[in-house]
Design a protein that fits this description.
Number of strands: 31
Distance between the termini: 69 Å
Number of helices: 6
Length: about 500
């Protein structure tokens, strides 16, 4: 009764007014969940880019794992049978081992005392010695190899599958610095080589566009007109036009016959960071800090598409004749392949963990590469199938370039340049750029790289206000610069 009185005497709970539930950004919520699921997939499913294995293969792998887990008990049984046979003075002949290893002539596996494994499974007692214990089939993916455990506990295996090894890379001569060109008053942020391979153009933070002779390195022309840093340059292969993109939110078309601006393209809401011309259609694509890529008609100056979907700055864009015709890389750590006809995303690649600042198209293969601070990744068109990782350039990769010989160059913010073999992902040369006299040590960053159309000269634009030209070392041979190649297991293809 006292307990009942205490309960009845308690004061009623005070009801609080309902609190308004906070508004949740559903798009951000879905994006966060998708990224967490993707990272979990990268951690726990290494080969997610491969098609799912067949059911029979999974069953065989499960049986093999289970058999290996029970190997300890089998070894104890073998040791016990060996001790019994030695106590009775029996000796196992080598011919019996050979007969057992050569495999049974009938469907039942034979042992050294002549009894079949089927009779043992039927319940026949065997007090004699057993020299060979058949080990369960360890075949995976259709292999017919059979592992056996000998009487002394030794495990034998025939035709054991080995992990895939990196193939031997192709030998490439090392690259060396051949010329340093000075003339800009700020960082060199972009460059392009004209189709006839006679001259190249550079743009920098000094708001200038300079045209240089490719053979001699002499300055031929300076174009002024932008009011902020020039971030993108392209020379048309179909018209005598030079296109430039700048941080002043504008894109200009320069007529190279009159050396003046003929068209302006307005529409970006912030700085424009890159542009790319379509090789077969009179359109071009620009991207920038407003997180979109815009498709323009060259003649009418009209905007055709606004390719939206990225959630951060779009750092680079590439165009090609085949599908996907437009590829963009963004600071939101994704690469998007676009359907140009519909103006929407075809595939989103979320393998990178850091900002993707650079893209490079292979001139001959139907492939492209993307560069980030975590890895350089190679992809197969048209669906963006992952090929391999190029690991080892531990820096912020600003630029990528590839020539027809299969040499991929990655340049970073700290002035480091790595040279890779495209097919195998082998890093055959590492180079550290040197700032010109009068520059501080931090001005060694490389912002842009590019090969000329012959693929024999490499141009770089750097933070020390110079353009550097590299060439292959003609005196190098495979004996003087051998390939230091160790066939490691292909772990890089697992994530």
């Amino acid at each position: 009764m006292a307990a009942i009185e205490e309960v009845e005497g308690t004061a009623p709970a005070v009801e609080t007014p309902e609190q308004s539930t906070p508004q949740v950004d559903l798009a951000f919520f879905r994006s966060t969940i998708y990224r967490n699921r993707k990272r979990t997939l990268d951690c726990f499913q290494a080969e997610h880019f491969l098609p799912p294995a067949a059911l029979s293969v999974c069953e065989e792998a499960w049986k093999n794992i289970k058999a290996r887990d029970q190997l300890g008990a089998i070894r104890e049984f073998v040791d016990e049978q060996k001790k019994r046979s030695l106590a009775r003075g029996e000796v196992v002949a080598a011919e019996e081992f050979d007969e057992g290893l050569s495999g049974p002539t009938t469907g039942a596996s034979r042992t050294s005392d002549g009894l079949s494994s089927n009779s043992r499974q039927a319940g026949h007692a065997d007090t004699g010695s057993t020299s060979i214990i058949p080990y369960p089939n360890s075949s995976v993916a259709g292999s017919t190899s059979q592992a056996l455990v000998l009487a002394d506990g030794q495990q034998l295996a025939r035709n054991v599958l080995r992990a895939p090894l990196m193939p031997k890379p192709k030998w490439h001569p090392p690259w060396k610095l051949s010329r340093v060109i000075s003339g800009h008053y700020g960082w060199v942020r972009c460059l392009t080589v004209e189709p006839e391979n006679q001259w190249f153009a550079t743009g920098g933070s000094d708001r200038l566009i300079k045209i240089w002779d490719l053979a001699s390195g002499e300055l031929k022309l300076t174009l002024t007109g932008h009011i902020s840093a020039v971030r993108g340059l392209e020379v048309s292969t179909r018209h005598p036009y030079l296109f430039s993109a700048s941080e002043d939110k504008t894109v200009k078309c320069w007529d190279l016959e009159y050396n003046k601006v003929t068209r302006h393209y307005h529409g970006h809401l912030s700085a424009v960071y890159a542009l790319a011309l379509h090789p077969t259609i009179d359109i071009f694509v620009t991207c920038g800090r407003d997180s979109v890529a815009r498709v323009w008609d060259i003649r009418t100056k009209a905007g055709i598409h606004v390719l939206g979907g990225h959630t951060n700055t779009v750092a680079d864009v590439k165009c090609q004749a085949g599908e996907p015709q437009v590829i963009t890389a963004s600071h939101d750590s994704t690469v998007r392949l676009w359907d140009l006809r519909m103006g929407r995303t075809h595939v989103t690649l979320t393998h990178h963990k850091k900002s993707v600042r650079a893209l490079a198209m292979h001139p001959d293969l139907y492939m492209f590469a993307s560069g980030s601070a975590d890895n350089i990744k190679e992809w197969m068109c048209p669906d963006g199938k992952f090929v391999q990782n190029l690991s080892g350039h531990n820096a912020i990769v600003n630029a990528l370039a590839c020539n027809s010989d299969g040499v991929l160059v990655s340049a970073a913010d700290n002035g480091s340049m790595n040279f890779w073999d495209w097919r195998t992902g082998y890093n055959f040369q590492k180079h550290k750029t040197i700032a010109q006299p009068g520059s501080i040590e931090s001005e060694t960053g490389v912002f842009v790289t590019g090969f000329d159309h012959s693929g024999s000269r490499l141009l770089t634009g750097e933070a020390d206000k110079t353009i550097k030209m590299y060439k292959e070392d003609e005196s190098a041979t495979e004996e003087t610069h051998p390939i230091v190649w160790r066939p490691d297991i292909l772990r890089a293809a697992k994530f």
